[in-house]
Each structure stands twice: as C-alpha cells, then as structure tokens.
Hints:
152 residues; globular; 4-stranded antiparallel β-sheet; binds inosine-5'-diphosphate; Alpha-Beta Plaits; alpha+beta; binds magnesium ion
Amino acid sequence: MERTLIIVKPDGVQRGLTGEIIRRFEQRGLRIVGMKFMQVDRALAEAHYAVHREKAFFAGLVEYIISGPVVVMALEGTNAVAAARATIGSTKPHESAPGSIRGDLGIEIGRNLVHGSDSVENGEKEIALWFKDGELVSGWTRSTDKWIFENV
Ligand code: IDP
Ligand code: MG
C-alpha cells in the first residue's frame, strides 16, 4: 500500500472546510493511518518545503503555512499518491478541474487549501517528518476494504 501526507492548510481550517476536505479523501477510499490538528512551527514548515527554498514565493509560503493551525493526515491505499493528487487538483486553483478540492473550493495559488505528497518516496519522507511512529495506526483494516481494494 502506498502512503501519502495530506495537509489541510490554514486557509482550509479558517474557512471551516476541514470536514469537507477530509470527506473527499475518505470517500475516495483512502484509509486514515494518522491525523492531528497542530500549529506548525517555522522550522517544520521550512523543512517540509525545503525543495522550494530558492523560489521567490518561499518566504510567503512559509508564512502561509504557519499562519494558523492545520490538520495533517497520513493516508494509505493502492495508488494513494496519484489518487490524492487528482482529488486535490492542480497547483493553481483557477486551472484546477471542477470536482477537485482546489477546483471547487479555491481560486489563488497562494491559498490552495491542501497539500499532497508528489511521489511515493516523498510520501514516506513527509510522513516521517510530520509524525512520530507512535502517532500512526498501522496495519488496521476496515470491513469495507475488500469493496475498495480488489486484492486485500
Ligand atoms: P503542489 O502543492 O501542487 O505540489 P508545489 O509546486 O509543490 O505545488 O508548490 C508548493 C506550494 O507552494 C503550493 O501548493 C503553493 O501553496 C505554493 N506555491 C507554489 N507556487 C507558488 C507561487 O507561484 N506563488 C505563491 N505560492 C506558490
Ligand atoms: Mg508539491
């Protein structure tokens, strides 16, 4: 099973869209293995977005992510990374397909509501960055799993 890190960013929390955003991943069939509500500190925000360190938008991005609490989730499923990215939509909300989170709920790149890992490798790295081992519930199953995953 693949794992992906999802963050409901501060705009999603402030706008009362936390439940709406979680619902979309849950209904897609992804299984929750970790979830917490937290205030992100600058060091964690900078580590998470280290790949964008040299970009002009980096400082603003860090301020955005630490501007209020977030909900962080580790989700798993077959093709979890690609499925979550599709559910999120493209980086620019105004170009995101209607039906996606960003396409339905957002309009500006600097307020795009949600983060999702962009590769299986980064999913594992990001989950290790954001969660301690004891915060994850690994290996649990749902009675519905066989209706969502063909081979369980
Ligand atoms: P992603 O979140 O769709 O993977 P990335 O290119 O990895 O997009 O960028 C990370 C985050 O940085 C975006 O989600 C967005 O919040 C922010 N960001 C990216 N490009 C810009 C920009 O040009 N202006 C402002 N913020 C940006
Ligand atoms: Mg990204």
